[in-house]
Write a structure and sequence with these properties.
Largest sheet: none
Distance between the termini: 60 Å
Number of helices: 14
Number of domains: 2
Helix content: over 70%
Radius of gyration: 63 Å
Number of strands: 0
Shape: rod-shaped
Strand content: under 5%
């Protein structure tokens, strides 16, 4: 469950509790209102009972006044009292129509009141029609007093009953009011308890994974790349833990692949390339020296041949620059390797180091690829050596022909020329093998560099948000990039110069005098070429041992 719905569930639970509490309070308030209405009806009933008893007493007093004085005004007062009694009875019937118990008590009282009214009417009619004596005799029968006492007794019982009902209603109203108060308070307390309990559960569910992630990040900052465990679920924290574990896995692969503890790192491979490049540089220098001795044998050196040999000298100079560039790349990779091994132990600094290593590795792999392509282009050098060997072979055949014609010392010279031709062919094969070995080693280094670069890119993708630091780290590489670009242009020109030199040798038309002079100088040059072959053999042993 995501964090957002968890927090929303708190609000939902509080809303439900408040709704239930509000409904309970509403019910209690409705009960309180009903109780108040019932109590009000009870009070009105009590008042009407007292009023009814007073009107009946007035009705009896008016009849006595008429009996004693004979004043007919009492008849009018008696009629008014009778009207008030009827109104009170009507009001009581209205108040008790929905309550059977009260209506029953009222039904017991009404016949007594009606009997009292009939007795008073009979007394007054006797007084008016038969005179005072008859009326007095009727009054002395005590029937009117007995009815009045019974009415008072019934009204008293009714009043006591209504007062009891009123007390119950007041107690019920008080209880309802208390229930309303406690319902409201209980709803608030229950909502607070729910919020506290559920918030505690949610906070603990968030705090424990955060603590585990914090400890794992502290270990990563100390150089111990261990994945975080115990973070389960489907919320944002579990996604964060999964991302963190992926980052740790990438960093582990980067350490195992890039640092190269097993001796197969790009730094080690580039060291082998450096050794091969130095050996190739030595071969170029020896070739230049042999070519210088060879060209010195010509009188009136042809201008095109001299220019081509000058290009070979430039090749030697540029091969020196190539070795320097390889050395610079090796130093940068070594420095990046050491920086990664002994870097500071905070995540931010590790991110910065990884960015720097990635930048330098990317630059290095491009330079190594370019270097491999340029070395591949140097195959033209072996073509030149093959061409020179062919020309020496032609001289050897010419010497054999001269030996057959003239005999004598030309036979030994022809044998020496033949041996020289074979040695030059062997040296050409060795140079080709050396170039192939260098190219293969460089491509292997480039492949290792690309593998390290891929692992580091994955680490950078996981770490994220630190690529803005890349621009500041590119400045130390700018100078090396310029040198590599310049070397690329020079090696491209060198390729065309070697091809041009080959065409010049093929087109060279030597005179017979130059050919004779060249034959005389070949003996001394052969010894130099033999030395060159010996040195080249020693150099070829270096890459194989590396």
């Amino acid at each position: 469950m995501k964090i957002g719905p968890k927090i929303s569930s708190i609000a939902g639970g509080v809303l439900v509790i408040l709704l239930l509490s509000g409904y309970s309070s509403f019910v209690c308030v409705q009960d309180l209102i009903d109780s108040n209405k019932t109590a009000l009806k009870t009070v009105k009933t009590l008042r009407e009972l007292e009023n009814l008893l007073g009107r009946v007493a007035d009705f009896e007093s008016n009849s006595r006044g008429y009996l004693l004085s004979g004043d007919r005004d009492f008849i009018q007062l008696n009629d008014a009292s009778l009207k008030e009694v009827e109104d009170s009875i009507s009001t009581l019937n209205e108040l008790t129509k929905d309550e059977p118990d009260r209506a029953k008590n009222l039904a017991e009282l009404l016949p007594l009141i009606e009997s009292k009214v009939e007795f008073v009417k009979s007394l007054m009619n006797t007084m008016r029609l038969k005179g005072a004596a008859e009326a007095t005799a009727l009054f002395k029968t005590e029937r009117g007093r007995m009815l009045m006492d019974e009415i008072r007794h019934k009204v008293s019982d009714r009043v006591a009953f209504e007062e009891e009902v009123l007390q119950k209603q007041l107690a019920n109203s008080k209880t309802t009011a208390n229930n309303t108060f406690f319902s409201t308070i209980s709803g608030g307390i229950l909502a607070l308890a729910f919020v506290s309990l559920w918030s505690f559960v949610i906070i603990q569910g968030l705090l424990n994974p955060l603590q585990r992630l914090s400890r794992a990040m502290e270990k990563a900052g100390a150089g111990r790349f261990e994945p975080v465990t115990g973070v389960e679920g489907r919320d944002e924290l579990s996604d964060l833990a999964s991302t963190f574990n992926n980052m740790i896995s990438s960093l582990r692969r980067m350490e195992e692949t890039y640092i190269g503890t097993n001796g197969t790192s790009p730094v080690h491979a580039l060291g082998l390339v450096k050794q091969h490049a130095q050996a190739f540089h030595y071969v170029i220098n020896d070739l230049v020296e042999a070519s210088n001795q060879l060209v010195n044998g010509f009188e009136g050196q042809p201008e095109e041949l001299q220019a081509s040999l000058e290009q070979i000298r430039n090749l030697s100079k540029q091969s020196t620059e190539t070795c320097d560039l390889i050395d610079e790349i090796a130093q940068r990779l070594t420095r990046s390797d050491e920086l990664r091994r002994t870097g500071h132990r905070t995540l931010d600094e590790i991110d910065e180091q990884v960015n720097k290593v990635l930048t330098e590795a990317d630059s290095s792999v491009q330079r190594v690829k370019g270097l491999a392509e340029r070395i591949h282009d140097l195959d033209g050098l072996s073509v030149i050596m093959d061409d020179m060997a062919n020309r020496v072979g032609i001289l050897s055949m010419s010497s054999q022909i001269e030996a057959k014609k003239n005999g004598g010392g030309f036979e030994a010279f022809a044998d020496e020329m033949k041996n020289l031709s074979e040695r030059m062919r062997q040296e050409s094969v060795k140079v080709k093998h050396l170039l192939f070995t260098m190219e293969r080693t460089i491509y292997r280094a480039a492949g290792d560099n690309e593998q390290a670069q891929e692992v580091m890119r994955k680490a950078i993708t996981v770490i994220g948000q630190l690529h803005v630091k890349l621009d500041a780290l590119l400045e130390p590489i700018t100078e090396a990039g310029t040198k590599a670009h310049t070397l690329e242009e020079r090696l491209e020109r060198q390729k065309h110069q070697l091809m041009e030199f080959q065409h010049i040798l093929e087109r060279a038309n030597l005179t017979s005098d130059q050919k004779q002079f060249f034959i005389k100088q070949v003996n001394s040059t052969a010894q130099e070429v033999n030395n060159f072959g010996t040195e080249l053999g020693v150099l070829l042993e270096k890459p194989s041992s590396s």
